[in-house]
Design goal:
Helix content: 25-40%
CATH class of the largest domain: Alpha Beta
Low-confidence stretches: 297-305
Strand content: 15-25%
Structural class: alpha/beta
CATH topology of the largest domain: D-Maltodextrin-Binding Protein, domain 2
Length: about 300
């Protein structure tokens, strides 16, 4: 059976993005054009492939089978084409999934400078703390702590070592005292962090004599926004815990007090990670090269090209 390959490309875009509108944006066509292409493909095959709703598109069983059969061959074609055009100006949509605690590394001058240097590349950054599969979700790369990067990914350090810090306001410590050891923390009011509403609050991590350990506090206030944690601590709500740079300026001004410093050691920080491919897309290679040139901390490992 002969089928127009363009219809298959539209189908894969819908399967990847999960909605007709998102697929239309990716392909730079109208939503109506995507819908018409899907209808033509379904008519040609004589079966429904996608269940449409106003906001999303869900694959039928037949659609799932078709996606599985097409993903490999079309992926190889895409990789091959990317490899052939490496010598030309990189173009396309670069999709990045960035943990909220890491977005400050990329936002601002780095992304702005990259956009100026590569006008043919569009950049879509999703800031999320959800545990997502970047390949399944259609991202080119992600940025998160190295300890939570999947082992089958290529991971490259970015931004250098980081350190955690526990802080509270002088007024709170004056009224409630200061914990002498991290294991004293459950007796104090704490402001905690969690990735998503359905996950447990983050266990605070410490080091004593080279031995790492965690403390499970019972936060009175929990949020997924470090800025909310900071403002709450400044308002005397309790002790909170995050990356040093979140609090350092306020500690230097005396608005917050750093506590339990002896139990905080630097550790490898954030990594940009991506799936191993025979041919790295030129848009991703350009981004890695730009980060390496600007930050001086990103290197492309051997075998990643």
């Amino acid at each position: 059976m002969r089928v127009d390959p363009n219809l298959l490309i539209v189908f894969l875009a819908v399967a990847e993005r999960g909605s007709l509108s998102a697929a239309a944006s990716q392909l730079d066509v109208t939503r109506s054009a995507v819908s018409q292409s899907l209808r033509r493909l379904e008519d040609r095959l004589g079966t429904a492939l996608v269940v449409r709703t106003t906001r999303s598109a869900r694959l039928t069983e037949a659609g799932e089978r078709l996606r599985e059969r097409l993903a490999g061959p079309f992926g190889e074609i895409s990789d091959a084409l990317d490899g052939l055009v490496d010598a030309t100006e990189p173009t396309g949509l670069l999709r990045l999934a960035v943990a909220s605690i890491a977005e400050r590394i990329l936002s601002g001058p780095l992304i702005a400078g990259f956009a100026r240097s590569y006008s043919g590349i569009k950049i879509d950054v999703t800031v999320t703390d959800a545990d997502i599969d970047i390949v399944e979700s259609g991202f080119d790369a992600g940025v998160r702590l190295g300890e939570v990067v999947e082992q089958d990914m290529i991971a490259v350090p970015i931004g250098g070592e980081i350190r955690m810090m526990a802080v509270a306001s002088p007024r709170y410590l004056g009224e409630h005292g200061c914990p002498e050891h991290p294991r004293d923390l459950p007796r104090f009011r704490c402001i905690g962090w969690r990735a998503t509403p359905d996950t447990a609050p983050y266990r605070w991590e410490f080091d004593e004599g080279g031995q790492a350990f965690t403390v499970q506090v019972d936060p009175q206030i929990t949020t997924n926004d470090p800025r909310f944690m900071l403002r709450s601590a400044l308002a005397d709500a309790g002790i909170t815990f995050a990356f040093e740079e979140t609090f350092k300026a306020h500690v230097d001004r005396g608005e917050l007090v750093s506590i339990l410093d002896a139990y905080m050691q630097p550790f490898p920080g954030f990594f940009i990670y991506f799936p191993a491919k025979r041919h790295m897309p030129s848009k991703l290679r350009a981004f890695l090269d730009y980060l390496r040139a600007e930050a001086g901390t990103v290197g492309l490992p051997s075998g990643a090209d």
